[in-house]
Amino acid sequence: MYLYNFFNSSTSYRVRIALALKGLDYQHHGINIRIGEQSSMDYMRINPSKGVPVLITDDEQTLSQSMAIIDYLDKTHPIPRLIPADNMDRSRVLELANVIACDMHPVNNLRILGYLKKEFGISDEQKNDWYQHWINEGFTAVETLLTRHGHGSYCFGEQPTLADCCLVPQVANALRFGCDLSTFPKVLAVYEHCQQQPAFQQAAPDQQPDYMN
Amino acid sequence: MYLYNFFNSSTSYRVRIALALKGLDYQHHGINIRIGEQSSMDYMRINPSKGVPVLITDDEQTLSQSMAIIDYLDKTHPIPRLIPADNMDRSRVLELANVIACDMHPVNNLRILGYLKKEFGISDEQKNDWYQHWINEGFTAVETLLTRHGHGSYCFGEQPTLADCCLVPQVANALRFGCDLSTFPKVLAVYEHCQQQPAFQQAAPDQQPDYMN
Question: What are the entry keywords (chains A, B) (predicted)?
Answer without folding.
Answer: Isomerase, Pyruvate
